[in-house]
Amino acid sequence: MAASNTLVDGDRLWQDIMALADITEPGKPYTRRSFTPRFLAGRAYLIEQFKAAGLEVRIDTAGNLIGRRNGAKPHAKTIMMGSHSDTVPSGGRFDGIAGVVAALEVARALRDAGIELQHNLEVVDFLAEEPSEYGLSCVGSRGMSGQLTNAMLDFTGPQDERLGDALIRVGGNPAKLPEAVRKDIAAYLELHIEQGPVLEQSKTDLGLVTGIVGITRLEIAFQGAADHAGTTPMHMRRDALYAAAQAVTAIRKQAEALASEPDGYFVATVGILTLEPGGANVVPEQAKVIVDIRTGKREKTLRFLESIDAATQDAAAKANVERSHFKTLSDTMPMDCDLGLLEDLAKSADALGHSYLPLASGAGHDAAFIGQLAPAAMVFVPCLGGRSHTPEEWAEKHDIAAGAAAMFAAVRRFDERTPVINQTHNSI
User: Fold this and answer.
1) CA distance 423 to 334
2) Structure pTM?
3) 123: closest CA among 191, 41, 68?
4) 228-245, pLDDT tens digit by residue?
């Protein structure tokens, strides 16, 4: 591996990542769930570092933490970088966090070198990228892209608190959500650990992300009747779990069929199956299945939903139960990364002596929403064993610094090659 761009301080970057890792729920490393006191403590640390870097700091009405550095032409559009600082339960030190800190380090390196961009620059910690306790992920980037609906704000979490009320607690303002929607973004860049083994196994420094899967979450519920497990004959049962089991089998078979097609990535996962009343000697009265569907081809999602709709109606009929609902909980479109930004990243990696290869992202990211507003691209860095969402998640300091150096150079390339266009929305 070639030496990183000396303008990016890898030690400073690493120090911030480790400092955030220390802000965790006791006994649950590394846990900073969105909307919790630990999450707010992490944000307080980031606010301190943003201000120390000379950034103007604010929280927008969608709850996103934003640090801004004005360019030479303040009315120009904005180059945005960022990721998220929340984690899954007992998650890792790098997922999301590395992207926020790398973006901050790019801003600091520009300041330290006395480099003034033509465009404005923003570093963003997006609110609640991970699935939150309110049943929704990418809350902040949904808000910034105009896709955080009133129905979503009514989702409830711990102690039946509304998401809208939780948003107020972290500094957002659901009554003024339209003010968070941006029309002034010129480009968006995000660094992230790969969350897969390809870079490590191929001994490649960086991954240039070609596209991000669309993610659809589906909830299917069956309603039967609770009966005594010892006295109810098999042919007289209205067993909701029997229908759910058939549904899970159909989901797996259809997902395998779509995954085997040559024209695009497809996976589907049943990660939640709940039963009521949940007694060992009681025939299940209710069963609920939640399906996570991911693909780079929208038409595959639509075909899958049509197939599973029919299959679950058949399953309900065979089990003599009702399919009480079949509804989409959340839905995001696949996103292709911008070819111009990918070229900026490739040229930057070449100049720095870093190897790279194209990769598709099977995980969702805030970039998928911001990419609907402006050109967007991502750079992946290797992670140990491809492991993520676990305390054992690990990335090396020099790999993160290499990704940050490529981002730094790509920001400069974009700024120099892109004519300044005045913004159509005042972001401050």
Assistant:
1) 26
2) 0.87
3) 68
4) 999 999 999 999 999 999
